[in-house]
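User: Last request for today: this protein with 2,6-diaminopimelic acid, please.
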Amino acid sequence: MRLQDMLFNIEFEILQQSHEEEITHIAYDSRKVVPGSLFICISGMETDGHQFANEAIRKGAIALVVEKAVPKVQGVTMIRVNDSRKAMAVIAAAFYGNPSSELDMIGVTGTNGKTTVTYMLKNIFEQARCKTGVIGTISNWIGEQELESVRTTPESPDFQLLLKKMVQEHVNKCIMEVSSHSLCLQRVYATKFQIGIFTNLTEDHMDFHPTPEHYYQSKKKLFHMTEKANLINIDDSFGWRLTEELTHSEVPFFTYGIERKADLKASNIVMDYRGVCFEVQGMGMNNFISLPIAGKFSVYNALAAIGTARIMEVSPKEIVDALENMGGVPGRFQRIKEIAEFGIIIDYAHTADALMNVLESIKGFSEKRVITVFGCGGDRDKSKRPKMGEVSGKYSDYTIITSDNPRSENPDEILQSIEVGINKVHGSYEKIENRREAIKRAISIAKKGDVILIAGKGHEKTQTVGSKTVSFDDYEVALEAAREENVL
Ligand SMILES: CC(=O)N[C@H]1[C@@H](OP(=O)(O)OP(=O)(O)OC[C@H]2O[C@@H](n3ccc(=O)[nH]c3=O)[C@H](O)[C@@H]2O)O[C@H](CO)[C@@H](O)[C@@H]1O[C@H](C)C(=O)N[C@@H](C)C(=O)N[C@H](CCC(=O)O)C(=O)O
Ligand SMILES: Nc1ncnc2c1ncn2[C@@H]1O[C@H](COP(=O)(O)OP(=O)(O)OP(=O)(O)O)[C@@H](O)[C@H]1O
Ligand SMILES: N[C@H](CCC[C@H](N)C(=O)O)C(=O)O
Ligand SMILES: [Mg+2]
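Assistant: Here's the final one, the structure of the complex with 2,6-diaminopimelic acid:
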C-alpha cells in the first residue's frame, strides 16, 4: 500500500519521495523496525522519535512520517504531518483494513471498573453465543485465546493489528478498556465504536493530565466516537455532567444507577463477602440477580454490563445466567478461599476512591478488625499517595504501608508520603518496605474473624523495583505466608 493512500482526511506534505512504495510493516519504535517498514516519528514526552529516523533507515525503513523534516536522509519517502500520532492511527486503521467497521466495538472508560465491566460483558456475550474479543489491563482475548497485554489500551498499530486478528478469527463483539491516556494520545483515533460506557471519574493520573478537567475532557472524547448508543453512570457527578453535555448529541444515551432516577436501576441490595444480590429494573429487565462478586461498586459494574447487553439485544435470561455463573475477575476483590481462620482479599484498588469503596464493602461484613497492606506505584500520580493513606487510616483498624511497584523512585519516600495521609487521621500503622515481609506480618498478626486487604497490585505477576522486574504475585505470596504461619 502506498503511504499517501493511507492518509485519509489528514493534511500532509510530501517532503521527498522514493520509488519504493510497498509498505509491509508499521513501526513507531526504531528498535522494532524491520525491512519494508514505515517509521513514524513521534515527539514524545521522554524523547523525540525523530532522533531515531537514521537508525530506522539503517534497519530497513523505506518511509518516514515526520512532524518536522529530518535532515540528510536519502532514498526514503518522507511525509510531514501536523500530528504524528493522529496520522499513525489513520494509517494503521487503513493498513489493517479498517477492522473496527467489521466488529461491534464496545469501549469502556472511567477511572475504576473498566476491566471488571469488560469481563462481565465477555461472560454475557459468550452466554449469548457470540465470539468475543477483549482488550484491557489483565490480558487480551480473541475468543478462548489469551494474549499478553502490555498496556491497558495499546498504541494504534498494535491495536489495529489486534482488531484485524479478531476479524480473521470471526470475533463479533470486541469489548475494550479505553484509557484516558489512549484517548489523549490518539491510540483509538480512526476507530468506530458502537457503544461507549462511562463508569465513573475520580482522581487519578494527575502525573499525566494537567488538571482534572483535562482528564474528564480526554475521557469524554469516546462519547463522540460512538454510533449506536452511550451508557452512563448517572450517580457519578461527572457522569451526570456528561449526560447534560450529550443532550443534543445525535447518538442516544442511557443511564444507570442506584441513587438517582435512571433508565436502568438497581435496588434492594444485599451484600456479604461472597457477593451481592440486587433487583434490576428498566431497559426490559425486571430481575433479581445474585452476583458472585462482592462490593456495592460491583452493582454499578453489573449495571454497565447489563445496559450494554440490552442495547445489543441480549435476553434478560442470558444476562442473568451469565452474571450469576461467572467466576470472579482475577485480582478484583479476590478472596483466598483456602484460608478459613480469617479473610484475605486481594484487590487492585490503586486510587483513593477504589480503596475507600473496597474498605467500605469489607467493613460491611467483617466481624472483627480490618488490616490493610498497600503501597503506591512509583513514577505515577504522586498526589494519590497521602489520599490513599488517609482512606486506609480512616477505614482500616490497622495499616501496613509497603511498596507497590516503586519503579525508578526511592521506595522509602513513597512510603513516607502515604504516612502523611495516615497521620492526618491518626490511623494505626507500621511501615515494612518489603512487600513479601509486609504480607507475612499481616498474616502473623491476624486473628480469627479479621479481614486482611492486600491492595494495589491485584492480578499483577511482577514487581518493578528500580530497573529490575521480578516475579511477584500477591495471591501466591499470601498463600506461602499462610503456610508458614500454619493457617492453611
Ligand atoms: C504516558 C504514556 O502513556 N507514555 C507513552 C508514550 O510515551 P511518550 O510519548 O513519552 O514517548 P517517548 O518515550 O518519549 O518516545 C517517543 C518516541 O520515540 C520512540 N523511540 C524511543 C526510543 C528508541 O530507542 N527508539 C524510538 O523509536 C518511541 O517508541 C516513541 O514513539 O508513548 C510510548 C510509545 O508508545 C509509550 O511507551 C509510553 O507509555 C508509557 C511507558 C506508560 O507507562 N504508559 C502508561 C502510563 C499508560 O499508557 N497507561 C494507560 C492507562 C493505565 C490505566 O489506568 O489503566 C494505558 O492505557 O495502559
Ligand atoms: N465501579 C467501581 N467504582 C469504584 N471502584 C471500583 C469500581 N469497580 C472496581 N473498583 C475498584 O477499582 C479496582 C480496579 O477495578 P478495575 O480493574 O475493574 O478498574 P479499571 O478501571 O480497569 O482500572 P485500571 O485503570 O487500573 O485499568 C478494583 O480492584 C476495585 O477496588
Ligand atoms: N494502570 C495503572 C495501574 C496502577 C497499578 C499499580 N500497581 C502501579 O503499579 O502503580 C497505572 O499504570 O497507573
Ligand atoms: Mg483496567
